[in-house]
Amino acid sequence: MSVSVQPSTELAGKRILLGVTGGIAAYKCAELVRLLKKAGADVVVGMTDAATRFVTPLTFQALSGHPVAVDAWNPDQGNGMHHIDLTRTTDLMVVAPASADFLAKMAQGRADDLLSTLVLARDCPLAVAPAMNRQMWSNPATQRNVTQLRGDGVAIWGPAVGEQACGETGEGRMLESCELLELIVAALTPKVLAGQRIVMTVGPTFEPLDPVRGITNRSSGQMGYAMARAFAQAGAEVTLVSGPVNFATPMGVRRMDVLTAAEMRQAVMAEIANATVFVGVAAVADYRPLEVSEHKLKKTDSEAAQQSRTLELTTNPDILAEVASLPAAPYCVGFAAESQNLDEYAEAKRLRKRLPLIIGNLVADGLGTTENRVTLYDDAGSHPLPILHKVDLAKRLVDELARRLDAAS
Ligand code: C5P
pLDDT tens digit string along 135-179? Predict the structure, then answer.
């Protein structure tokens, strides 16, 4: 069955107040507004006067769909309490880029323009993404202000080290818009997995036949990476043991790259003693070639090979079953991708591997697609979930897991 691809709306229902101050990095925030809107957030932008010299308010108005708050003295603004009204409906305020001057202003609690007034009048959490020349950043005055803001409960995001617009290289670059998006999503995610240490396997394995060829499968790793991201955003410490895939490591996740099932097993066993949860999302090859040729196999290697060739295989270790049978096993979650008889096969697998929870899907519903439809199987029976974008499904699975961990503790 083919399913339509809907973008994830993981920030639906959230309102972000983005404060833009005077720095060249302001241009990156145009992209940030677009990303936030795409994720379903309602975005209202406030700018300092200096910021409007770098990017016009019209740009942010067009991207956000709201008038931009710049002027504290605008008589057209409702009852004149615009600064209060704006922040009361906001889930998170982000100042990006935050200039050295604006950091100083916030640290002192000054309110001499609309944006600094919004910062002071807000009743929502505040995060800032500093952006400035490396000397300005390392100046003791700026560092003092940053320490003060941290102490006041403000989240400081970045800055990154790298090439700067002024031509110098050092610490002071604003984080990229996609990194800010990740931090915003994490800041708005309840920490229902705080204190959990999760080891996961994801992606396919690759079992070499010779230096060029091997046996693998069509697992893209998308579901596993979406889950690792969601687990980390929910406050878990995540170690990802990853087969060969094409995904960037989610923010805050520790990643170990492996190729074969044997390497995957070894990496998992080295990490598992400390884990509270193990999630086997990887499509681990059940078999590997009995012999791996040191050199590329040639067509002419044998007479018979010209007609047909027999490949002798041997079984791979079952990582999930081995972890589940450890004396002090963590809470183990398995996956079952089946092409038919899902209920029967998934439940049989759960019982055979002795898992409290297995997540099953029909391959036609999930393999290599952006959306997935899964059913959860546990001691209480089967629990089908609706078709969801893998990003949204990962969030739903976080809640399902957190609920079961609470019940099991
Ligand atoms: O036995 P089967 O491969 O169908 O089971 C799938 C589940 O077991 C998945 O969670 C997968 O990650 C895990 N598994 C494993 N090691 C294997 C085979 C599967 O950890 N060798």
Answer: 999 999 999 999 999 999 999 999 999 888 888 888 999 999 999
Q: How far is the CA of 53 from the centre of ligand 1 (A)?
A: 57
Helix (H) or strand (E) holding 204: none
Helical residues (DSSP H) of 50-113, grouped into ranges: 51-54, 57-64, 82-88, 100-108
C-alpha 53, offset from chain centre: 34
Residue 269, pLDDT > 60, answer yes
Rounded Cα gap, residues 62 and 51, in angstroms: 16
How many residues are recorded in the chain? 409
Return the closest-CA partner of residue 95 out of 160, 151, 175: 175
For 15-187, CATH gives 3.40.50.1950
Separation of alpha carbons 155 and 17, rounded Å: 15
- What CATH number does the domain located at 197-408 have? 3.40.50.10300
Prediction pTM value: 0.91
Q: List all residues 6 or more positions away from 25 whose beta carbon is below 8 Å from its beta carbon.
A: 96, 97, 131, 165, 173, 174
Res. 2: pLDDT tops 50: no
Distance CA 284, CA 207 (A): 10
Domain boundaries, the chain: 15-187, 197-408
Q: At what angle do helices 177-187 and 26-38 cross, to 10 degrees?
A: 50
- 10 Å CB burial of residue 229 (0-12, 13-18, 19+) is buried
Q: What is the residue-averaged pLDDT of the chain?
A: 92
- The amino acid that residue 192 corresponds to is V
Q: Which residue has the tokens 């997995």?
A: 193
Residue among 244, 239, 241 at smallest CA distance from 220? 244
Question: In testing the pocket of ligand 1, which one of 216, 227, 284 has its CB within 8 Å of the most ligand atoms?
Answer: 284
Residue to mutate, 318, 333, 367, ligand 1, most ligand atoms under 8 Å from C-beta: 318
**Is 166 annotated in the active site?**
yes
pLDDT tens by residue, 57-88: 999 999 999 999 887 666 565 555 566 777 88
pLDDT digits (tens, 9 = 90+) for 294-337: 999 887 656 555 677 889 999 999 999 999 999 999 999 999 99
